[in-house]
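Input structure tokens:
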């Protein structure tokens, strides 16, 4: 945890930046790199009766770490995706509550 769900980026592109991205994110979140999951979603966009490329979008699901960490996290994701030649990228955060997140059937607020 955190989980990154990425669309509009090819898997082979994302794989190229995945290690340096996770290294930077781990430093921002002050946790190990093994805490991160990155999923590259294969989606198909449609608009005005046409098939179009999906817009580059990253959804981050995590436990809140504050404005500063969130800002740095979004900037790091943006920087690494833009390094692939993708000029436009959006990042959105979904925040989990520890009392509603379970690991191995146990609530995180009770671990």
């Amino acid at each position: 945890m955190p989980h990154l769900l990425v669309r509009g980026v090819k898997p082979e592109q994302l794989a190229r930046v995945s290690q340096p991205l996770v290294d930077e994110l781990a430093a921002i979140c002050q946790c190990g790199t093994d805490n991160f999951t990155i999923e590259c979603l294969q989606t198909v966009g449609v608009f005005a009766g046409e098939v179009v490329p999906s817009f580059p979008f990253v959804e981050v699901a995590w436990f809140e770490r504050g404005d500063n960490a969130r800002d740095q996290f979004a900037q790091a994701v943006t920087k690494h995706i833009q390094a692939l030649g993708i000029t436009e990228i959006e990042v959105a955060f979904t925040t989990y509550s520890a009392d509603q997140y379970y690991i191995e059937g146990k609530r995180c607020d009770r671990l």
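The chain has a mean pLDDT of 96. The first strand starts at residue 3 and ends at 7.
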